Amino acid sequence: MSEEFAAEKQQAATWFRDLRDGIVAAFEALEESHDTGPFADLPPGQFEVKETSRASDDGSDAGGGLMSVMRGGRVFEKVGVNVSTVYGTLGEAAQNAMAARKGLPGMKEDPRFWASGISLVAHMRNPHVPAVHMNTRMFWTPHTWWFGGGSDLNPCIEYAEDTAHFHAVQKAHLDPHGEAEYPRLKEWANEYFYIPHRKRARGVGGIFMDDRNTGDWAADFALTRDIGRAFLPAYLPLVEKRRVMAFGEAEKDAQLIHRGLYAEYNLVYDRGTKFGLTTGHDPDAVLMSLPPLAKWV
Q1: Active site positions, annotated
Q2: Distances (CA, A) of 233 to 200, 227, 243, 268
Q3: Going by DSSP bridges, is the β-strand pair 61-71/76-89 parallel, antiparallel, or unpaired?
């Protein structure tokens, strides 16, 4: 594995950026179109965009990205859509943060790495609208490469038809890659997004994969792209349906308590959070997934 992967790395980084641009545009369009129901009297939210950067221990450039956050919108209370491409060398702590990739052959002798991806978390104004998470990424070392990521739905008020739609769209995007893929990635999500100390899942599931390397880079990249492509058609109809619904203090209270699950998971278990912090990435970008308000009782 050497720099013959330069073209593949560029393709992946470009895709994650294009996916980011499409999602940001779609979310701002939701804000503009929300003219009926709760919070319709507020000004439409817009993303604040900030370039992020990281430096190696010697101060040299080690990559960065774009952090895009919308706060206090009509539909979105807080949503972040980040893309990054980072590189450098992996110290022992960073290698250990990749729980699924400990003990990579050759990493001690040549600890160089390159990683690119998109990460999205949306916390909604209306408690009837589910929170959602999505990320996809590519990781490269001189010794191997792999893809990972997925998306999962996190409603505080569950609607069976919403869960069914979210999963059906993901299945439709994964089935062209083999009918075994969706059930396998669905079960992986159930295991990955489980909160052991609460003995429950943080939401109603979705799809997830890690360490994806079948030996066919193009096929694995195509699957990763379709995980990203599934996101908007799986999620936008749920937002459009639920954002006009009335709610009271009990529903909002349930939302704030449910957000506590999300915060606990991301701070205690999430490998992406651990990896981002141990590799020196902008902590605001790494922690943008945390909700603006939450409650523990």
Answers
A1: 133
A2: 27, 11, 16, 30
A3: antiparallel
Q: What are phi and psi of 105, to 5 degrees?
A: -60, 130
Report the relative pairing of strands 145-154 and 131-140 from DSSP bridges.
Answer: antiparallel
- Residue 296 to residue 164: CA distance in whole angstroms: 29
In this prediction the pTM is: 0.92
209-218 long-range Cβ contacts below 8 angstroms, 24+ apart: 209/147, 209/148, 209/149, 209/150, 209/185, 210/100, 210/146, 210/148, 210/149, 211/100, 211/101, 211/146, 211/148, 212/146, 212/147, 212/148, 213/144, 213/145, 213/146, 213/147, 217/8, 217/145
pLDDT one-digit tens code per residue, 157-196: 999 999 999 999 999 999 999 999 999 999 999 999 999 9
- Here the tokens at position 2 are 């050497």
